[in-house]
């Protein structure tokens, strides 16, 4: 299966980090489970919080500096991120399982 990756600069305003597969150039998801695996890494020194649309530093999943999170997403799911302080560069890589 094809692999896609990218980096997003996250600030104090929530930003779309991983877009739904239906909107992506290549649809990457497991045909049996209809999910895709996404690894997200906080490549900056500040904290980042992950979650759905409307994520805040108060309700998001914390991702410390240099930490990684692995998620299984359905094709229509989107992950958002917000930085706790100054901007942070967050990288991701995804593929079907």
Give the key terms.
mainly beta, Jelly Rolls, globular
Provide an overview of this structure.
The structure is a single chain. With 97 residues, this protein is mainly beta. It has one domain (4-96): Jelly Rolls (Sandwich), CATH 2.60.120.770. Helix content is 0%, strand content 46%. A 4-stranded antiparallel β-sheet has the order 1-8-3-6, with no helix packed on it. The protein has a 4-stranded antiparallel β-sheet with strand order 2-7-4-5, with no helix packed on it. It is globular, with a radius of gyration of 13 Å. The model is unreliable at 22-30 (pLDDT under 50).
Helix proportion range: under 10%
Task: Assign the structural class, choosing from mainly alpha, mainly beta, alpha/beta, alpha+beta, or little secondary structure.
Answer: mainly beta
**Count of individual helical segments:** 0
Count of folded domains: 1
Give the CATH architecture. Sandwich
Unreliable segments (pLDDT under 50, ≥5 consecutive)? 22-30
| Amino-to-carboxy terminus distance | 9 Å
Radius of gyration: 13 Å
Q: Sheet bearing the most strands, described? A: 4 strands, antiparallel
Q: Tell me what portion of residues adopts beta-strand conformation.
A: over 45%
CATH topology: Jelly Rolls
Outline: globular
Query: How much is the average pLDDT?
Result: 80
Give me the count of strands. Answer: 8
* H/E series: EEEEEEEE
Strand order within the widest sheet? 1-8-3-6
